[in-house]
Design goal:
By secondary structure, the chain is an alpha/beta fold. It has a single domain, classed as NAD(P)-binding Rossmann-like Domain (Rossmann fold), CATH 3.40.50.720. The chain contains eleven helices and seven strands. Helix 4 packs parallel to helix 6. The structure holds hexanoyl-coenzyme A.
């Protein structure tokens, strides 16, 4: 879909880039020539991913153990990157989540998610953005959200609240930082199954392929390449007028829950025929009454 050197010369940081969606996106950026920075809480997976990408794509890949819940640690890490040059791209991918009835959540359970997703993502964005502004260096910031920023979501309330806050951050900072050449967009993926997320969101197969066939108009989960391509497009030059947008990438899944009639996808042709007849009957009766 893209030229191999599309991201040549760009320095891109992916938080949570050692595994899952973060690793997939970092891989695609490296494949298209970017210099990669990945950070996360587990040193071993970061080291493995960095080694793998370096060998495959012959591009510099740096990794650092970091817990984004600490502003001090974040600030220190971002400063160390900027010592060698500014970033051109940031992907806010690091997150935490698990399914739980909200009545069973302790305050610490809420904080476990909100401290990573809501606070941590702001800390990284702020530490990067303030330095970019000072250096007058333009860049693209992409946050990985979820479609529940538009719908809310039962059973993952701390994540839904936190990611909705980041949707507001995306829109707000697109305006505030637009004059500095910093653009902010977000991707709201539907299901893109990864080991880490699915162990917490679908521990007993709650989200299965058969459930997608019913709930997603395209009848399937997302292909990783589709997410990689959209993230790459948002980080590349060429469409810089695009800012402040959260783009759903979900096979229209969330739109099916958005209306009173969304469950009608299960109605058969025969049932539609009966429905049509019933409506016609009502219309004809009305006409008779009017004449
Ligand atoms: C209820 C739970 C719980 C659970 C933890 N807690 N798991 N409560 N149900 N299943 C509570 C604990 O009891 C404790 O509260 C508090 O949360 C902190 O627990 P810790 O284990 O100490 O937390 P911590 O080590 O900080 O781990 C953070 C985490 C963990 C978020 C809980 O899952 C994690 O590190 N996840 C990172 C990776 C991840 O989650 N990836 C999925 C991202 S998916 P008490 O009161 O008992 O002390 C995503 C969106 C996907 O973001 C969208 C798909 C459509």
């Amino acid at each position: 879909m893209f030229k191999d050197n599309l991201l040549q010369g760009k320095r891109i940081l992916v938080t949570g880039g050692g595994t899952g969606l973060g690793k997939e996106m970092a891989t695609h950026f490296a494949q298209h020539g970017a210099e990669i920075f990945i950070c996360g809480r587990r040193n071993n997976v970061l080291e493995e991913t960095a080694q793998e990408l370096k060998e495959k794509f012959d591009t510099p890949v740096h990794y650092q153990t970091l817990d984004i819940r600490s502003y001090q640690d974040v600030d220190h890490y971002i400063e160390s990157i900027f010592q060698t040059g500014p970033l051109d791209g940031l992907v806010n991918n690091a997150a935490g989540n698990f399914i739980s009835p909200t009545k069973d959540l302790s305050p610490r359970g809420f904080d476990a998610i909100a401290n990573i997703v809501f606070h941590g993502t702001f800390y990284v964005t702020h530490a990067v953005g303030t330095r970019l502004i000072e250096l007058q260096h333009k860049a693209s910031i992409v946050s990985i959200l979820a479609t529940w920023v538009w719908t809310g979501s039962a059973y993952v309330v701390p994540s839904a609240m936190s990611k909705t806050g980041l949707d507001a951050m995306t829109k707000s900072l697109a305006v505030e930082w637009g004059p500095y050449g910093i653009r902010l967009n977000a991707i709201a993926p539907g299901p893109f199954p990864t080991e880490g997320a699915w162990a917490r969101l679908s521990p007993n197969g709650e989200l299965s392929e058969s459930s997608y066939e019913k709930s997603i108009p395209l009848g399937r989960a997302g292909d990783m390449e589709e997410l990689q391509n959209l993230a790459t497009f948002l980080l590349a030059d060429g469409c810089e007028y695009l800012t402040g947008q959260t783009i759903g990438l979900d096979g229209a899944q969330y739109l099916t829950g958005g209306g009173t009639f969304s469950n009608l996808s299960e109605v058969t042709d025969d049932q539609w025929s009966e429905i049509r007849n019933a409506i016609r009957k009502t219309n004809n009766k009305d006409k008779k009454d009017r004449s």
